[in-house]
Amino acid sequence: MPPCFSLLLACSGKGAQAAISQHIGLSLAGAGIGLAIIGYLAIEHFLYKKKDWTLAAALVLIVLHPAWWISAMHGDCGYTKFYASSVFVLLFIALALRASFRKRPDEAP
Length: 109
Known about the structure:
Layout: H1 3-6, H2 16-46, H3 54-64, H4 66-69, H5 79-101
């Protein structure tokens, strides 16, 4: 059954627990990627003096991350949790890329 139909039905039957476990694990892995990127942004912020809004944005994203607040046990076997986590990982990667390509204040323009 396609994931869009599973939003309408409860998650049950053969393989349901495996799907739930897999989506919970993948969502937590996405949160781990977010935490690693926060570490990178903190190094950029404090060690290299690249001070702007990216670290604050990443901290807000990790607080709002679906791994913490979307349930995989009720409803769609965790598909929503997984897809929302994937979006957050892309946002974290965008913040890391922005931090990587901006210049430090002591660099010439």
